[in-house]
Amino acid sequence: MVDAGDEKVWHLVMFDLPVKTKAERSAATAFRNLLLDLGYERVQLSVYVRYLPLPSAGSPAIRQIKRNLPGGGLVRMINVSDHQWSTAFRFANVEAVRPESAPQELTIF
Which CATH class for the 4-82 domain? Predict the structure, then answer.
């Protein structure tokens, strides 16, 4: 039996950030770059995702994201099970597209 805490998940970060001023645009760019540096991939304009073999593996990244939240914006973070992610409907240019699959696990030796 698999422990619910051991379920593989996709961690989503969704946000709307102000970008009217140069300072706001700079803060938004820094936030997006932080997500990329933490291993997230852009799946839509303001939606980034990261595969986590264990949900607890995302805790350090979540703390870092919280410490670097830009002011004046809205940010939402959720976990989606690997099964939910793989059964999601995805369309590009009106054509159905298969969802991203879990990345290959690396062997370090």
Answer: alpha beta
